[in-house]
Design goal:
The protein has 2 domains: 172 residues, Alpha-Beta Plaits; 251 residues, TIM Barrel, CATH 3.20.20. It is 49% helix and 22% strand. The chain has 18 helices and 16 strands. α9 packs parallel to α11. It is elongated and about 95 Å long. The N and C termini lie far apart (76 Å). It binds ligand C2E and magnesium ion (2 copies). The site of ligand C2E has 23 residues, from β9, α8 and β13.
Length: 448
């Protein structure tokens, strides 16, 4: 069989590669993938060496397919001789081989194996006694350091192999920093595109007055529906935007979209207050106050109908400039809330300096209240703290009716959470306002 014929069997073959007798691509993937699960459970190391024969196409045309086939078989044999019994060897491309080294005591052993393999492949002895010099390049990726799936590991090993070839080395170990750079830069470009191409959307989650049993506003939460990758959550792309200079345009988009849709919502619910999240780097921008003022003017919104949520940890990244910005926003008349309260590391000294109106108790304490008496005590202390500082207190992450009534009886002013409603797109939220028990005055409260 010629190399060309053999190549045709590689892509779909889930079993052995007929030319070399080692695992085909599919078999290599599935065998390694199942070993990854075991390694994960046992906290063990696994490495993948990916190996490519330099200039294989010209070998084909200079020596002919029969010689090319012999070379491929011999490479497979060399790999078999280097591999230990438990390791998995496979032919994963026409001229590409992979060796998965299982249960490695140390990642350095992967380097030793790569060295040994490359040294053994210096010269190939053909069936007719001729010798052919070949050159190979290898890339090495280690689990879990460079990836958690066989796809990612091979991708990383492939990049490392490419670097080895470019830098005239026989092998190269994958580089994590390089990995993030490459994977990210594509996503960053897509995010940049998303801001202008309306792939972003705001969802709204109602905030209610627990004592009056009434909706008071909603938090705008951003969503990115990426056509290629599907849904990407804000926890994933907000840090990306922060690190790549996109957080400012993204914040302006959120702010303006929320205020624009707030105009429509207020037609149904005049007291409605819109809450928007701000992240660390925007808070340190001196222009922010000016931009918020302009957005309020554009959407003809009274400043007290806008609530800005900032986390303690965002403030603490640049405390001086952030506190100055918060003062500027407060002077505008905008309401300010400390989000995820209790999870940061701010001291009471800083709390005293923060010109905020509201403490938003982090959901980790709220979710635990029903089962953990200490979480209940922490929540009660935060409510008391808020009262002592004359701040309004809201609890986020209310997932059941017990927690809702517990918070109400503890004196917590406001609440938000899946029990009241999950975040909804604009249309669903408008319908929710029309139908919800939280917007119908005089209705009895739900059963406890
Ligand atoms: P956050 O501001 O603390 O928002 C609350 C998060 O908790 C939201 O997640 C919300 O969907 C979720 N949540 C609300 N109630 C419950 C509940 O009862 N149970 C559970 N399990 N979760 C609940 P989401 O939408 O994924 O947002 C995550 C974070 O992303 C937000 O945390 C906020 O920090 C950030 N974020 C969202 N939108 C924006 C934005 O437009 N700009 C900026 N800078 N950050 C945003
Ligand atoms: Mg928030
Ligand atoms: Mg929060």
């Amino acid at each position: 069989m010629t190399a060309r014929h053999a190549a045709g069997t590689i892509g779909n073959n889930r079993l052995m590669d007929t030319l070399t007798g080692i695992a085909g691509r599919g078999e290599f993937f599935s065998a390694t993938d199942s070993m990854l699960c075991e390694h994960e459970q046992q906290d063990a190391t696994l490495a993948v060496i990916l190996l490519n024969i330099k200039g294989f196409r010209s070998i084909n045309s200079v020596y002919g397919y029969s010689v090319a086939d012999q070379i491929l078989r011999q490479v497979a044999e060399c790999i078999q001789s280097v591999k230990r019994q438990q390791d998995i060897a496979g032919r994963v491309g026409v001229d590409e081989f992979a060796l998965a080294l299982l249960n490695l005591k140390s990642p350095h052993l992967a380097e030793l194996a790569a060295n040994k393999l490359i040294a053994s492949l210096d010269e190939i002895l053909l069936d007719d006694g001729r010798r052919v010099d070949i050159k190979v390049h290898a890339g090495v990726a280690v689990f879990p350091e460079h990836g958690g799936t066989i796809d990612v590991l091979l991708q990383q090993a492939d990049r490392a192999m490419y670097t080895a070839r470019e830098t005239y080395q026989s092998y190269q170990i994958a580089d994590n920093s390089q990995q993030t750079g490459i994977v990210t830069s594509g996503l960053v470009r897509e995010l940049e595109h998303a801001i202008t191409k309306s792939e972003l959307e705001l969802y709204y989650q109602p905030k209610v007055d627990l004592q009056q049993h009434r909706m008071i506003g909603a938090e705008a939460l951003i969503r990115w529906n990426n056509p290629g990758r599907g849904f990407i959550g804000p926890d994933e792309f907000i840090p990306l935007a922060e690190d790549n200079g996109l957080i400012f345009p993204l914040t302006l988009w959120s702010l303006n979209t929320a205020l624009r849709q707030g105009v429509e919502i207020r037609r149904l619910w005049p007291d409605f207050r819109m809450a928007v999240n701000l992240s660390a780097s925007t808070l340190a921008e001196y222009e922010l106050v000016e931009l918020v003022m302009r957005a309020l003017r554009t959407w003809d919104t009274s400043p007290d109908k806008l609530m800005i949520e900032v986390t303690e940890s965002a403030v603490m990244k640049n405390p001086d400039s952030s506190i100055e910005t918060l003062h500027g926003l407060r002077e505008l008349g905008v309401r300010l809330s400390i989000d995820d309260f209790g999870t940061g590391y701010s001291s009471f000294g800083y709390l005293k300096q923060l010109p905020v109106h509201e403490l938003k108790i982090d959901q980790s304490f709220v979710k635990g209240m029903a089962t953990d008496v200490n979480d209940g005590r922490i929540v009660q202390s935060m409510i008391n703290l808020g009262e002592n500082f004359e701040l309004s207190v809201i609890a986020e992450g209310i997932e059941d009716v017990q927690t809702l009534y517990q918070l109400k009886s503890m004196g917590c002013h406001h609440g938000q959470g899946y029990y009241i409603s999950k975040p909804m797109d604009r249309e669903k939220f408008l319908n929710w306002i029309a139908d919800s028990e939280w917007t119908r005055p005089g209705l009895p409260e739900p059963a406890k």
